[in-house]
Design brief:
The complex is a heterotrimer of chains A (about 260), B (about 180) and C (about 350). Chain A has a single domain, classed as Rossmann fold (3-Layer(aba) Sandwich). Helices cover about 35% and strands about 15% of the residues of chain A. Chain A is built from ten helices and nine strands. Chain A has helices at about 5-10, 35-50, 85-95, 105-115, 115-125, 165, 175-180, 195-210, 225-230, 235-250; strands at about 55-60, 75-80, 100-105, 130-135, 135-140, 145, 185-190, 215-225, 250-255. Chain B has one domain (about 1-180): Pyruvate-ferredoxin Oxidoreductase, domain 3 (3-Layer(aba) Sandwich). Chain B is about 35% helix and about 25% strand. Chain B contains six helices and seven strands, in the order E-H-E-E-E-H-E-E-H-H-H-H-E. In chain B, strands 2-3-1-4-5-6-7 form a seven-stranded mixed β-sheet, with helices on both faces. Chain B is globular, with a radius of gyration of 15 Å. With about 350 residues, chain C is an alpha/beta fold. Chain C has two domains: about 5-190 and about 230-240, Rossmann fold, CATH 3.40.50.970; about 245-355, Rossmann fold, CATH 3.40.50. Classes of the chains: A alpha/beta (about 260), B alpha/beta (about 180), C alpha/beta (about 350). The interface between A and C is medium-sized, with 31 and 38 residues.
Chain lengths: ~260, ~180, ~350
């Protein structure tokens, strides 16, 4: 059958469609199957590799599912207290202005306990990249309501769905930081489809380029999923995300530099 | 020699800066010095006081209950610190705004009409230097040349044109201070 | 270059010494009675003098976490605050201790609890010496008793912090922060620029990646790590105890006091001796490690000990542990921002120790 590719053909280098970045370690990830963290880590590692900045990049991990990110990326990293990653990044970047500094934070970390650090780092225009993973839930602690949990969404602390009259409204941090004079590039992406992965990768590339030029804070939100916390299969979670999260958190650029 | 002084009055009378000039002057003549202010919101328009210690020896406590000399520049300060003067010690006060004069008989009491004199000199800012001049007349623990250097050091350069009038205020203070019996 | 003599407030002397020590960065937030530190640093333009970074943070919490970030890069970094602000920083301090990072924290103590008062106090002794935040950890704690020591302890604190990779605290109070005295400064040091092998300065090809973290979910490894910390603290107790004695040679009674209280106590000793009371002073300079051995030895010589503290009696517990019941140990203190007078100290020595 001429249309079928044999195993031998698949492993030929010219047919390679994906390989692990050299900036990734060999440690097996602890993330649940279908979770967006793994893909985002991989893209980030690829960009660091492509830009040749492994020796000059310092990352900051949050408290949350991605607390162990430092086990997966082969770069120098610091693990911050809950919500404080932008404060660490501020100091690191100011003390070593020629390094590339990024934080990687979840919605509870960035938009609840760390709101002040997020807003003020962005407002000061720190030359850092903030990657904000928004899956509308506290994944690591077992699926409680996050500041970004959408109205009606169930979680272990909104078992009947988020009721605005009781729990208030979901917070759109990306919209807020885009209004601050210190931010230079603000965008909302996702990694649930190949096309989105490519766009996300381009966004990280841009952000590091802007950081090199000391333009100010770059902020990339990634609308993501939590199959375990949402009690769904990976496929169901992606579908639910598209149908429910994306209408409330539409993808696209919020602040793009004029070039 | 150890001289333990409390200076107290309204914020704005230059109480703290007077103490600072004394401390600077003490350093000029190789003395040990400490300057311990009252601080906080009470200073903003309210009363201010500072403890200044000048000594040939290492200074132990910068905070004291009993003083060799009290320089008291309003009624509240007089009420509060008259009793804090060591028997045989010295009290200097400005009679302006005072409704009750010092009553102690076991200390030397001096009066200096510095507010009035400052008005006469058409410079309210010279008030604290008039008082300091009076103090130095009674207690010549600091040499005048060192006080002038201390004054210069503690005044920002943009105020250095005021040095002559301050020097004049010091000598006026020396002239007008008088002892009460 | 020669030493330089200045007349300065304790807070200003601290700030000047920070610049001269070749410090890399300061992160802070205003609070009375220590705002002069941040004010002095911004006025002095240390970025022009040495390239030092000075940043007013959005909160005490952000400031201590900036310290964490900078310390994780192996830099000489510090923050300063006063009691309520130090309480806010405790989470960050615990993380810094857990990640074994060197840094300096100045606490210019004011009276509490709560918002309390802005007047001087020593009521943060427990918080400073027993950990302060969560978990089994210790800070190196230095207690200055003069404006000169506010300056001198900056270099000492950094030296000890880097030697042990441990946060160091200078525990001062509002009186020492606000008072002016003579202070001699060392000449300006350059910022070292030295790369610490453990720091996150960018993973070069010749080494493994460096990770700054206090997290280890494996209980056995976490216990091993805690044992390592405890070993470090024991080593500090053996090697880093610092104290000063005053008129102890013939003393029949002993005062134990640190910081402002020790200055008041010296005056009290002078007054007591004029009345024929043979009293001396032991002033702990390091509050952790505490001079327990030295106090225990003096307990064989004197008849009783009075601690003088601006608190309800905190250090007295460590003195009692050191004395271990050999002789009576009592406490005298004032609270709420009141500094005890030398007269009161003498009265209490008589009433609680000599008469008792």
């Amino acid at each position: 059958m001429a249309d079928t590719i044999s195993t031998k053909q698949i492993i030929k280098p010219e047919n390679l469609v994906h390989k692990k970045s050299a900036v990734m370690t060999d440690t097996t990830m602890h993330y649940c199957p279908g979770c967006g963290h793994g893909t985002t880590h991989q893209i980030l590692a690829e960009v660091i590799e492509e830009l040749g900045i492994q020796e000059n990049t310092i990352g900051i991990t949050p408290v949350g599912c991605s607390v162990f990110m430092y086990n997966y990326l082969n770069i120098d990293m610091q693990e911050a207290a809950h919500g404080r990653a932008p404060a660490l990044a501020t100091a690191i970047k100011r003390l070593m202005p020629d390094k590339y500094v990024f934080t990687y934070q979840g919605d509870g970390d960035l938009a609840a306990i760390g709101t002040a650090e997020t807003i003020h780092s962005c407002n000061r225009g720190e030359n850092i990249l903030i990657i904000f993973i928004n899956n509308g839930i506290y994944g690591m602690t077992g699926g409680q309501m996050a500041p970004t949990t959408i109205v009606g969404m169930k979680s272990s602390t909104t078992p009947y769905g988020r009721d605005v009259s009781l729990m208030g409204n979901p917070l759109k941090m990306t919209d807020i930081v885009a209004t601050l004079p210190g931010t230079y590039y603000v965008t909302r992406q996702s990694v649930h489809k190949p096309g989105n992965v490519r766009k996300m990768k381009k966004a990280i590339h841009k952000a590091f380029e802007y950081q090199k030029k000391k333009k100010g804070t770059c902020f990339i939100e990634v609308v993501s999923n939590c199959p375990s916390g949402w009690r769904m299969t990976p496929v169901e979670s992606n579908k639910w995300m598209e149908e429910n999260m994306l209408p409330f958190y539409p993808l696209g650029d919020f602040k793009v530099p004029e070039e | 020699m150890t001289e333990e002084i409390i200076i107290a009055g309204f914020g704005g009378q230059g109480v703290l800066s007077m103490g600072k000039i004394m401390a600077y002057s003490g350093i000029m003549q190789d003395m040990e010095v400490s300057w311990m202010p009252s601080y906080g919101p009470e200073m903003r328009g309210g009363t201010a006081n500072v403890t200044v210690i000048l000594s040939d020896e290492r200074i132990s406590s910068p905070i004291l209950r009993i003083f060799d000399t009290a320089i008291l520049l309003n009624q509240q300060s007089l009420d509060k610190f008259e009793k804090a003067v060591r028997p045989g010690g010295t009290l200097i006060y400005d009679v302006n705004g005072i409704s009750r004069n010092p009553e102690r008989k076991d200390i030397a009491v001096y009066r200096i009409d510095a507010t009035e004199e400052a008005i006469r000199m058409e410079s309210s800012k010279t008030f604290n230097m008039i008082v300091l001049g009076g103090y130095l007349k009674i207690k010549p623990v600091l040499k005048m040349e060192n006080v002038l250097t201390g004054l210069k050091k503690s005044l920002p350069e943009r105020y250095h044109h005021l040095l002559p009038i301050n020097e004049k205020a010091l000598s006026r203070g020396m002239e007008i201070i008088r002892k009460l019996d | 270059m020669e030493k330089e003599l200045r007349l300065m407030k304790g807070n200003e002397a601290f700030a000047e010494a920070v610049i001269r020590a070749g410090t890399d960065a300061y992160f802070g937030y205003p609070i009375t009675p220590q705002s002069e530190v941040l004010e002095y640093l911004t006025a002095e333009k240390p970025h022009e003098r040495t390239g030092m970074v000075v940043l007013q943070a959005e909160s005490e919490v952000a400031a201590i976490n900036m310290v964490y970030g900078g310390a994780g890069c192996g830099k000489k970094v510090l923050t300063s605050s006063s009691s309520p602000g130090i309480s806010l920083k405790q989470e960050g301090i615990s993380y810094i201790a857990g990640a074994e990072l060197p840094c300096l924290i100045l606490n210019v103590v004011r009276g509490g609890p709560g918002l309390g008062t802005i007047q001087p106090s020593q009521s943060d002794y427990f918080q400073a010496t027993k950990g302060g935040g969560h978990g089994d950890y210790k800070l190196i704690v230095l207690a200055p008793s003069s404006v000169q020591e506010m300056a001198d302890f900056v270099e000492l604190a950094f030296e000890l912090a880097f030697k042990y990779r441990n946060p160091a605290m200078i525990l001062s109070d509002g009186a020492i922060g606000q008072m002016m005295e003579k202070v001699w400064f060392n000449p300006q040091k350059k910022r070292s620029g030295e790369l610490q092998p453990w720091a996150t300065t960018g993973k070069t090809a010749d080494r493994e990646r460096n990770i700054i973290t206090s997290l280890d979910l494996d209980p056995h490894r976490q216990e091993q790590f805690n044992l390592k910390l405890q070993k470090k603290y024991r080593e500090m107790k053996e090697k880093e105890v610092r104290y000063e004695t005053f008129q102890c040679d013939d003393a029949e009674y002993l005062l134990v006091a640190y910081g402002t209280s020790s200055r008041v106590s010296q005056k009290a000793i002078q007054m007591g001796r004029e009345e024929g009371i043979k009293v001396g002073l032991l002033r702990p300079i390091t509050l952790f490690p505490f001079p327990s051995k030295e106090i225990n030895e003096l307990a064989d010589q004197v008849k009783g000990i009075l601690t003088v503290e601006m608190s309800a009696g905190q250090m007295v517990e460590d003195v009692k542990l050191a004395v271990n019941g050999k002789i009576p140990v009592e406490h005298f203190g004032r609270m709420g921002g009141i500094i005890p007078t030398p007269e009161e100290v003498v009265e209490n020595l008589k009433a609680k120790i000599i008469g008792g």
